[in-house]
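Per reviewer request, we include the raw input and output of the structure prediction for the construct analysed in the revised manuscript.
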Amino acid sequence: MMNPFGWSFLLALSLSLWLRLYLSQRQIRHVRQHAASVPAAFRQRISLQQHQQAAAYTIARQRLSQWESVGDSVLLLALTLGGGLQWLWTTLAAAGCDGLWQGLLLIGGVTALSALYGLPFSLYRTFVIEQRFGFNRRDWRLYLGDALKAGALALLLGGPLLALVLWLLGVAGSRAWLWVWACWSAFSLLLLWAYPTWIAPRFNRFAPLADQTLRARIDLLLQRTGFQSDGVFVMDGSRRSSHGNAYFTGFGRHKRIVFFDTLLTQLDADEVEAVLAHELGHFRHGHIRQHMLSTLALSFASLFILGQLQFMPAFHQGLGVNAMAPALSLTLFMLAAPAFTFILTPLFSLWSRRHEYEADAFAAQHSSGAALISALVKLYRDNASTLTPDPLHSRFYDSHPPASLRIAHLERHTP
């Protein structure tokens, strides 16, 4: 019989699933209703065929996400209220596993089960949807290689960290959550430092930007904005997808600027400079630091809550587990928390959109607002991004402003 923990979890999960499906259906309906004509602001640069292609791409992705949301909820119920986690724990004990190894194998088993469940969706997204719309460039060998490397890295890096976390939760008493937070924070910063030089090159090739004319323009922009980096690199993103992108990686003095090779083929030099100026705007306004600090603060709050729930039998029993152990507490918390925190999504989306507006204004001031507008239109077109998202869906989910609002904002900041 469920207790208040169980009923509150079931209610939160039901409401979050309903909201996901409701917003997704609104997005499908709104995009389909506006597929017949290109918005006036884009008619000179995006054809009706391209606009309708973007609409079809958006709808296909939304339909897959609906099935995925339902499947996620069914799997979550099976593991918790359905007794799946309890069965796995009991089976491991019957096989002679106990202590730290039982906890590690429990979390490893749940992780493997989740990965297997998500595999059909990933395959369909990559080899059906992305393939159908001309974005996928991965073959089966590359897909499998990426999966194996990701799994090996997770085991190599995550395994020791997980063992440390479970050990701390078992021996450090009521302050264990604080020690876990300190270890997690240090690990996150270590990953941020190691990603550019140790992790990313395991998946992609990075070469210094060879175009000396473009590099000279970039160096001048970096000087104007007071930004220092370890270099400007081009990544072979075209091995996997035709989508274009650019990003910063690393922190402190060890920062890299990375362009996808696909982006450099899509944009001219003025547009590339404007896109980089936008990314520099994030740095200059402290958005990257704010994001890192907010992540640390959220993990602090989450682990504090876990520290209180860890010693409550009602928490475990309410979610379908009769035993109490650090691994069970951690797994139940990780499984249940997203259902309760989903409602916070629009707050983080709003925060992110404000950052995008600030970075756009910075780019218009230090580079060319007109070039950034031109670049964005090309990226909307080439990445099949819908120009007509449902307003409520966009406010809830989108980390970037809708195309029409973003272009209008840039035009106000462009002389």
